[in-house]
Write a structure and sequence with these properties.
The complex is a heterodimer. Chain A contains five helices and seven strands. Chain B is of the alpha+beta class. The chains are: A alpha/beta, B alpha+beta.
């Protein structure tokens, strides 16, 4: 057998093995966020339902998830059932960030599907979302009692998200 | 009790497989006949032991023995019995047990169906199978034991993943495993040849049947998987270029290449070195597939847990086994190189091109599958390689292969008469052009160059294969499989380019028109079953205002895991499917409804059925109409 060919094949083979090995301890679904481990950005806005003003100071001291949603977002309607489940079972406080939405359609959307949110922060022009580094809706941030973002999930969440991500984080 | 029994059976099998391996050295010192008989009987005992352990686990599932962690995690009192049984291979631990059981089955088959093969080759092959079995058993015992206990014992189990509660998925994994693991047979053969240093054409003819068997099972497994995805996922898709799908498709391509190069090696005594290397590569791809599926290092629709420890174990094994095999190959294979003269019109040359294209396709898919991993390791950012890349690569590389099928059938070894080939095939190409033109122009209605090209090639293949059949009167494995491929290509092309989808909000009592069909949305009712509740949509389908059938697509919520599953309702005819899936509820009166019009999608299942039939002919002999006439 041609020596050059064999060397090349072995190098190719070892290269693949290296990449497989390097991939082992990475979670492929994770999209890195520079905000993890940092304090959640400040905001000042109003609540969608009551119209009262709301700031991030009021959320301090609670362990909660911040769910970015909009009535135009299809993925949000998929995850909505799970949010409603969490709400009904009183599993965790859920706050909503209503992202680039119109007030009426957002309220109607919630009327049809139920409202799992304790409070909903209105973000009509998406400025708060920019501070939070939101790629798109739906996204979910897990924020602890000290107001630190400890996890971020991109895309619809489901029961597994609660069981495998939130529960272990809460126990810590 | 069950735990002990299961563990004892697994441990004994592990010890026996080590014995089996030891004969690779012992055969020099003891009488070869004794050695052969020992190996043969040991392979039988391993099969019996592993089958028993599998039955023990099945028994635990059927009797709701939640003291086993694995049963508790994947079964439920309310689960139907058939799904309790299929839950045995519904998750990681059981899958690996099934895997090693299938490996033992192939090992046993080599031992007992190998009349003309020298004993020393069989002993070596069994020894190699033995070491593979040993690895997977150690993997089970050390990292993924399905017989592990759980305490306190839960009153009820966590239920089987609802996605897996479907008839198609009961047999999909076992079929795939038979195919995947079947590639270990040519692998063991290749190593045995390298170790022994000699080879005879009839051995190649023997090994080819095993390769065909593995190819056939992979074909069944993959097509069942896509059939399931089409019926169950509710998006009307059937192939997603998902890493796990690619993991099964790469071995399929490699096995297909192997099938063809084996023919050349057997008939002409050439390409033997390549055949051996390809056998090793094919099995490597199977192992790589196992690794990708079980380690969860790539994002996949097949939601498997990310488990670095298990992944590491497989990776280490993969490195050792494949690394050693490659080394052995590079040291020993120079003995096997043979030379021969062949013309560019010869069958050898066409099959060489076939192998070249199949190998390049395999590596292109491998690259696309691993690219996200490579780019994130090199810190080039998180990238995913999507369907456009794969579709492009696939059509650019596959159409030439399919086009070459007809010349391959009509060419002969050594040198083909050029004029004969041109005359025969030219005529078929003209026929195919005419048929395709009329078919696309009058039946489908739209024209597009790629579609035209693909259909011409498909029809060309079908026509020339049929013609060859009328000439020889032998319905042979290759003809029927090639016709199957032609039909598959038609199905893929037409359904890809001319499907239409409609995602609409429908009010009760309204109709929607798609092509010549009208679909009326009547109502949504609740249905309660043992382990799920479901919303059932009631739709009526009309064709030119005449009532055809009623549809009942469902949206199920499974009680235990609260998962929501879509059950699409499909009206199928040979030339088109109407596919209805229930989406989200908007309010009491209106729902989001997804309706798909899918022409020629049935060809996607018809093609593989013919290919599987071809595989059966390849193993058990061709249907010979000529001989019957003589009698």
């Amino acid at each position: 057998m041609n020596f050059r060919f064999s060397t090349l094949s072995i190098v190719f083979f070892l290269g693949i093995i290296y990449f497989l090995y390097a991939g082992l301890d990475k979670d492929p679904t994770l999209i890195p966020s520079p905000l993890i481990g940092k304090t959640a950005p400040n905001f000042k806005s109003i609540d969608l339902i009551t119209g009262e003003s709301i700031t991030n100071i009021e959320l301090l001291g609670k362990f909660y998830i911040l769910n970015v949603w909009a009535s135009w977002c299809y993925g949000c309607s998929i995850e909505h059932n799970y949010l409603m489940n969490m709400y009904k079972n009183n599993e965790i406080d859920i706050f909503g960030l209503n992202y680039k939405d119109e007030k009426d359609s957002a309220i109607n959307w919630l009327k049809e599907r139920g409202n799992p949110y304790k409070k909903i922060i209105v973000d009509t022009d998406g400025n708060i979302a920019i501070d939070y580094g939101v790629y798109g809706a739906p996204e979910t941030f897990v924020i602890d009692e000290d107001g630190i973002i400890i996890y971020k999930h991109v895309g619809p969440i489901d029961q597994n998200f609660y069981n495998q991500i939130i529960l272990p984080l809460m126990k810590k | 009790m069950i735990t002990e029994l299961g563990n004892i059976l697994l441990s004994f099998s592990a010890a026996l497989s080590l014995c089996l391996f030891s004969f690779i050295f012992l055969k020099r010192y003891i009488n070869i006949d004794n050695c052969y008989n020992f190996s043969k009987n040991i392979s039988l005992i391993i099969l019996i032991f592993l089958l028993s352990s599998f039955l023990v686990l099945s028994y635990a599932f059927l009797t709701d023995n939640f003291s086993l962690r694995y049963v508790a995690a994947n079964s439920n009192l309310n689960l139907e019995n058939i799904y309790k049984f299929s839950a045995v291979w519904g998750a990681h631990e059981g899958s690996i047990l099934l895997w090693v059981l299938v490996l033992a089955f192939w090992c046993f088959s080599i031992a007992f169906f190998s009349k003309n093969i020298p004993k020393k080759v069989i002993i070596d092959m069994l020894a190699i199978m033995g070491i593979l079995i040993l690895f997977f058993l150690l993997f089970i015992l050390l990292t993924s034991n399905p017989f592990d206990r759980i305490f306190p014992i839960p009153l009820n189990g966590n239920d089987l993943n609802p996605l897996l509660q479907d008839p198609g998925l009961i047999i999909h994994p076992p079929m795939l495993y038979f195919g995947y693991v079947g590639t270990s047979v040519p692998f063991a053969f290749a190593l045995a040849i390298l170790i022994n240093g000699d080879i005879e054409p009839e051995w190649l003819s023997w090994i080819r049947k095993w390769v065909i068997a593995s190819w056939m099972f992979l074909t069944i497994g993959i097509s069942l998987g896509s059939w399931w995805a089409y019926h169950e996922l509710g998006w009307g898709g059937w192939w997603f270029w998902d890493p796990v799908e690619n993991a099964s498709f790469m071995p399929w391509l490699a096995v297909t290449a192997l099938l063809h190069t084996l023919i050349v090696s057997e008939k002409r005594g050439i390409f033997i070195s390549w055949t051996i290397l390809l056998s090793i590569l094919t099995f490597s791809l199977s192992l790589l597939g196992t690794f990708l599926v079980r380690s969860g290092i790539l994002v996949s629709v097949h939601a498997f847990a990310n488990d670095p420890e298990r992944g590491l174990y497989i990776l280490v094994f993969l490195t050792i086994v494949i690394g050693l095999s490659l080394l052995l190959y590079f040291i020993k294979s120079s003995k096997l190189v043979t030379y021969s003269n062949y013309d560019i019109t010869s069958k050898e040359f066409i099959l060489l091109i076939n192998n070249l294209f199949l190998t390049v396709t395999t590596f292109a898919i491998l690259l696309g599958t691993l690219y996200p991993l490579i780019s994130s390791t090199l810190n080039l950012g998180k990238i995913s390689v999507g369907a456009p890349y794969f579709n492009f690569i696939f059509s650019a590389l596959t159409l030439p292969i399919v086009f070459l099928m007809s010349p391959a059938i009509f060419s002969v070894w050594g040198k083909t008469n050029y004029n004969y080939l041109i005359k025969k095939l030219g005529l078929f190409i003209i026929f195919s052009l005419i048929i395709t033109y009329f078919f696309l122009h009058f039946y489908v209605g739209v024209e597009n160059f790629i579609v035209f090209l693909a259909i011409v090639i498909a029809i060309f293949t079908i026509l020339s294969s049929l013609y060859k059949f009328t000439q020889t009167r032998i319905l042979s494995a290759n003809l029927i499989s090639h016709i199957g491929i032609g039909i598959l290509i038609i199905g893929i092309t037409i359904s890809n380019y001319y499907s239409s989808q409609h995602e609409v909000i429908m009010k009760k009592g309204t109709k929607i028109t798609i092509q010549d069909f009208q679909i009326e949305f009547n109502d949504v009712k609740n249905k309660f079953s043992k382990n799920y509740t479901s919303k059932v949509g009631i739709f009526d389908l009309y064709y030119n205002k005449n009532y055809l059938v009623s549809f009942f697509p469902e949206k199920r919520t499974y009680n235990t895991q609260k998962n929501i599953m879509t059950e699409a309702a499909i009206y199928s005819t040979l030339s088109k499917d109407i596919y209805v899936a229930l989406g989200e509820k908007i309010n009491d009166n209106s729902w989001v409804v997804r309706i798909y019009y899918k022409p020629f999608i049935q060809f996607l299942w018809l093609g593989p059925i013919l290919m599987i039939l071809g595989g059966l002919f390849g193993i058990f002999g061709n249907l010979n109409f000529y001989q019957k006439k003589l009698k």
